[in-house]
Amino acid sequence: MKVLWIVNKPIGALHEKLFGKKSTGGLWMEAMLERSREDQSISIVIVNISFVREVQKYVFKNETYYTIPGVPNEKYDYKSQKAHRYWREIIKAEKPDLIELWGTEMPFSIPALEEAGNIPSVVYVQGILDSIGRYYQAGLTADELRKSYTFRDVITGDTIKKVQKRYLKRAVIEKQLVSMAKNIIVENQWAESYYMRMCHDVRVFRCPLSISEIFSSIEWSFEKMQPYTIMCSAANYPIKGLHMLLKALTIVKAYYPDVKLFIPGTPLRPVNSVKSWIKQSGYDKLIRLMISELGCAEVVSYTGRLTAEDMAKKMSEVNAFVMCSAIENHSSTLKEAMSVGVPCVASYVGGVPEYARNKENCLLYRFEDYEHLAMNLISLFRSQELCQKLSVQSRFDMKNSREQNDFYQISKDIYRAILNR
Q: Locate the Glycosyl transferase family domain: which residues (predicted)?
């Protein structure tokens, strides 16, 4: 069985060839590729898009990688003759049995499906663009939106409001892709409900997201962690909710002055020149202002980009993990944290409540209620017993989920079901 994957950036062996290291994103795809290398019954062709002049090909074991020319965003001209020619030649050369789209945010997938003919296809739903567009402002007030305006964002059209409009516009393409594919893979009922509204005749399969085993191999303990420390998900745009966490942090800080927040990802660039002032994004500007105005400069620290191993290790060293998004489909980062066993606090959004149960394996709160988020963190800082209870139960639940749901095998079974039909 040959499966052609459509992805939005280099992964697997191609990523290692280009950058000399493993990818820090899409870890579920990386895990699936690892399994496929030992499986003679399947071969995988992976296509991504990038700023190249001509189609590039790279072969590693039973994996074949293609990079096609184009802009990897909504500006991609998916109606062009070149776009169709690239896909026509790849499909003719590889003759895949099945096409899988990893996400719905890629307009360059449209010519692929148009050129696929009778080859069946399926979409693995990651973020749902329609829901991201709906909640993109993430509780920001009118004053906060005003403060977020920057020269760069006005010139490039990347203000928060305009980006929100683009997500809603891309949701039209999302609906088109799913309608063309006719098959989707979701992890939860929440995601399925969106597509029941958008595409009535789509065939739905269930497959839980795969979490790298590194997160279950490193275990949190009360004795090894650093008290009054917090880690959150990467947070470089509004929907991830860092602005709400900072508001909660000021409340926590009043009770625990030594509190520290660690944020994965690239640190905020210093604004110390005209060039850096021009280049700053609106959300970065807002976060910088909030950190200063709320007196959190000594509290907040960015970790830089982390590998899976580094992420798991850092999670095991903090007192609490927070997933503070305005919307999430499944939040792989929260599942990773729960696998490590760090006590978790999460916003009650999307598909999260289908595995994160309040006061059993996680503490939940409504996204806008940052006061409740603060109270949950204070509760964890106050109670070793509560931390231990959440840690043990979350690790047990994640272990049980992994044992009952083999992501790789379920994916192959779905492939076969689609092909047999």
A: 225-392
DSSP string, 90-153: HHHHH--SEEEEE-S--TTHHHHHHH-TT--EEEE--S-HHHHHHHTTTT--HHHHHHT--HHH
CB of 382 closer than 8 Å to CB of 390: no
**Residue 183 is encoded by which pair of tokens?**
């098959």
Q: How far apart are the first and last CA of the chain?
A: 15
Pairing of strands 121-124, 203-206: unpaired
CA-CA distances (angstroms) from residue 242 to 9, 138, 162, 183, 245? Answer: 25, 10, 20, 34, 5
From 182, 226, 203, select the one nearest 314 (Cα to Cα).
226
Burial of 166 (0-12, 13-18, 19+ CB in 10 A): middle
User: Distance between CA atoms of 260 and 390, rounded to whole angstroms?
Assistant: 21
Give long-range contacts, CB 8 A cutoff, 24+ apart: 18-26.
Answer: 21/307, 22/307, 22/308, 24/305, 24/306, 24/307, 24/308, 26/102
Encoded tokens for 100: 């899988």
146-164 CB burial, b ≥16 within 10 A, e <16:
ebbebebbeeeeebbeebb
Distances (CA, A) of 57 to 41, 70, 90, 91: 22, 15, 10, 13
Tokens coding 105: 């945010």
* Domains of the chain, CATH where assigned: 2-211+405-412 (3.40.50.2000), 214-403 (3.40.50.2000)
CB 174, CB 130: distance < 8 Å: yes
Give the three-class secondary structure for 327: coil
What string of pLDDT tens digits covers the 421 residues of the chain? 999 999 988 988 899 988 888 776 777 788 788 888 888 899 999 999 998 889 999 998 888 999 999 887 777 888 889 999 999 999 999 999 999 999 888 888 999 999 999 999 999 998 899 999 999 999 999 999 999 999 899 898 899 999 999 999 889 889 999 999 999 999 999 999 988 888 888 999 999 887 888 999 999 999 999 999 999 998 889 999 999 999 999 999 999 999 999 999 888 888 888 888 888 889 999 999 999 999 999 999 999 988 889 999 999 999 999 999 999 998 999 999 999 999 999 999 999 999 999 999 999 999 999 999 999 999 999 999 999 999 999 999 999 998 888 888 999 999 999 999 7
